TrEMBL record:
It comes from Larkinella rosea. Residues 2-118 form the Gfo/Idh/MocA-like oxidoreductase N-terminal domain. Belongs to the Gfo/Idh/MocA family. This is Gfo/Idh/MocA family oxidoreductase. GO terms for molecular function: nucleotide binding; oxidoreductase activity. Gene3D superfamilies: Dihydrodipicolinate Reductase, domain 2, NAD(P)-binding Rossmann-like Domain. Keywords: Oxidoreductase. Residues 129-244 form the GFO/IDH/MocA-like oxidoreductase domain. The keyword Cell division does not apply.
């Protein structure tokens, strides 16, 4: 039995816990919020044994194996270190932290203490993405030449809420642009060049961000994110002998379509009844049972590389936060 705690009880925490409770041999042991009332209500809703009105209380809870961190981006760094320094394994929401320096410190702490740490990039564990990666690696579409991916929706303009609040790590790139960028890294690796530009709104956040990445094998990735318009939020991988299509919304999709240049397309579908967070929760639970300190599918080096790409995009596009000082 792997006993979970949840730190930060917003909307995504509800979805994660709903899926967590479908995973075999796990228990929701404790939850924590900055509000005791919110913690009590959350614990009662999902059957957690303990409810804490502070994060510091959570890390002293006996019997905890791992903590899922679901706070806003700007708090990931301090919340992760709090748990790691208490000897607790951590699954922390994406983006891992606000910049590469913060992630480096998180990784160094986890490795020095030999405590499990993983970024909650749930898309990496979706069966549709794993199938697309398998097809690409087996050259089902020949040599991979390019990738196009986008993520866009209309976010309500509420300056005090996370999306439009720079102090909370708001903006399209860190919140949703990370998904197209992650996909380019997963399939193409680290780029040779990064070009990016952004359109900024009245609150100072990047409302739109466009990225073009090139690679040493004459490959190209074209990516974008926006919180001011609804896009297809799909992805296409182009090879010299066909393509792979991940329909919208690709980051949580349940299918992949293989279209060879000659012949009929083949669709692979992976039906589910959950949001999709159960795949990463089960993976983390399995890693802990096997005494692993890093995921073999999404390692800490992968997270370091991804935050490095995010930093490079931000430097190009002029997306700055207080933490960068």
């Amino acid at each position: 039995m792997i006993r979970w705690g949840v730190l930060g009880l917003g909307r995504i925490a509800h979805k994660f816990v709903q899926d967590l409770l479908t995973v075999p041999e796990v228990e929701l042991l404790a939850v924590a919020s900055t509000s005791q009332q919110r913690a009590d209500e959350f614990a009662a809703q999902y059957g957690a044994k303990y409810a804490f009105g502070s994060y510091e209380e959570l890390v002293t809870c006996e019997g905890l194996d791992v903590v899922y961190i679901a706070t806003t981006h700007n708090h990931h760094f301090e919340n992760t270190l709090l748990c790691l320094n208490a000897g607790l394994a951590v699954l922390c929401e994406k983006p891992f932290a606000m910049n590469a320096e913060q992630v480096r410190q998180m990784v160094e702490t986890a490795r020095s203490k030999r405590v499990f740490l993983m970024e909650a990039l749930w898309t990496r564990f979706m069966p549709s993405v794993q199938k697309a990666l398998e097809l690409a690696e087996n050259q089902a579409i020949g040599q991979l030449k390019g990738l196009r991916a986008d993520f866009g929706f209309v976010a309500p303009v509420v300056p005090e809420k996370r999306m439009y609040n720079k102090a909370l790590g708001g903006g399209s790139l860190l919140d949703i642009g990370i998904y197209p960028l992650f996909l380019s890294y997963l399939f193409l690796g680290k780029p040779a060049t990064v070009k990016a530009t952004a359109v900024f709104g009245e609150t100072g956040i990047d409302e739109q961000c466009g990225m073009v990445l090139t690679y040493g094998k004459n490959q190209l990735a074209v990516l974008n994110s926006t919180v001011v318009s609804k896009t297809d939020t799909d992805a296409v991988l182009y090879g010299d002998n066909g393509s792979l299509y991940l329909p919208g919304r690709f980051h949580e999709g349940d299918s992949v379509i293989h279209q060879p240049h000659e012949g009929e397309p083949e669709t692979f579908t992976f039906a589910r009844t959950t949001w999709g967070y159960d795949y990463e929760a089960e993976h983390v639970s399995d890693c802990l049972r096997q005494r692993k300190t890093e995921s073999p599918l999404w390692s800490l080096d992968d997270s370091l590389n991804l935050i490095g790409l995010l930093d490079a995009v931000r430097a190009e596009a002029g997306i700055l936060y207080e933490e960068d000082k």
